[in-house]
UniProtKB/TrEMBL annotation:
<keyword id="KW-0472">Membrane</keyword>
<protein>
    <submittedName>
        <fullName>C-4 methyl sterol oxidase</fullName>
    </submittedName>
</protein>
<dbReference type="GO" id="GO:0016491">
    <property type="term" value="F:oxidoreductase activity"/>
</dbReference>
<keyword id="KW-0812">Transmembrane</keyword>
<dbReference type="InterPro" id="IPR050307">
    <property type="entry name" value="Sterol_Desaturase_Related"/>
</dbReference>
<dbReference type="Pfam" id="PF04116">
    <property type="entry name" value="FA_hydroxylase"/>
</dbReference>
<keyword id="KW-1133">Transmembrane helix</keyword>
<dbReference type="GO" id="GO:0005506">
    <property type="term" value="F:iron ion binding"/>
</dbReference>
<feature type="coiled-coil region">
    <location>
        <begin position="276"/>
        <end position="304"/>
    </location>
</feature>
<feature type="domain" description="Fatty acid hydroxylase">
    <location>
        <begin position="136"/>
        <end position="272"/>
    </location>
</feature>
<dbReference type="GO" id="GO:0016020">
    <property type="term" value="C:membrane"/>
</dbReference>
<keyword id="KW-0175">Coiled coil</keyword>
<dbReference type="GO" id="GO:0008610">
    <property type="term" value="P:lipid biosynthetic process"/>
</dbReference>
<dbReference type="InterPro" id="IPR006694">
    <property type="entry name" value="Fatty_acid_hydroxylase"/>
</dbReference>
Amino acid sequence: MTFNATIPLYDSMYPATDFSSLSWLEQQWVAWYVRIGSPILATSIMSFLLHEFVYFGRAIPWIIIDSMPYFRKWKLQPKKVPTAAEQWECTKQVLISHFTIELPLIGLFQPTAEALGMKTYHVPFPAWQTMIPQIFLFFCFEDFFHFVAHQALHYGPLYRHIHKIHHKYSAPFGLAAEYAHPAEVFILGAGTILGPLIYCYFTTNLHIFTVYIWIVLRLFQAIDAHSGYDFPWSLHNIIPFWSGAEHHDFHHMAFTNNFSTSFRWWDMICGTDTKYREYRAKVRAAKEAMKNASEDDVKILEQKLMDEVEAEGIRAEAEAERGGPIEKTVKVQ
């Protein structure tokens, strides 16, 4: 995009701005807002395009990984690889939510944000020293919001009519991060955007560029948590309190436990990870007991433990959908 400081809008939107002192990115930012001419429209278009490019751009590598048998050794549920048909069905549902829920809400975001004092078209961008603690606060707020709202969505009517869609896949994959009922996209998505809005309300010291970095990181977190893969270099192996795919995959497999998103601490504090920790302990004990066994025998045992957890999860899901316990004679398939 051409940067041309002679256009009159530069004077009205950026009076007394030394454009030569701006970074290349900041100059492109200015040029974008001047080219569109309306901060509301410019922010809305940029917000929607950012979300689409980041979401599908981050999901594509996982689609490629799912198609390559080499990576199965790191897949948490190796027998459950999404088919092309499942990937396409998931894409269609995600796009429906994006265009019916997110796009209209994005149109309301910019005027709301500016009314609360958030900077949008303004330059220069805030320093990293300012943005990093803000983004960390947003992670903490969203994690707690999601922890509470996610458990509510496991309650009978809310699960039956809303959250059930997201639990279609007991072995999630990257694209399935936002595979959900539009109402769930609205409910859980609120945790992503309310944090910045509340922070801005109390401080009036927030730039939308910081919010964009937060949203990109949040999308990466959500997609990676649904990837279904646990690599030695996965973040939770470096930062112990980070959730990651290994943590969230169990939630889809067992239906219960592990309701948080980014961090493990709320599940630990509230005891909503007991089954998960018991399962991991069983896996470790089984591997230790079979350290001299063949690799195939170890895989068979691991699959047996996963099948047991999933069977309990099917029963737990049926109870949640019904809104109460079911008879033990219910057949689990």
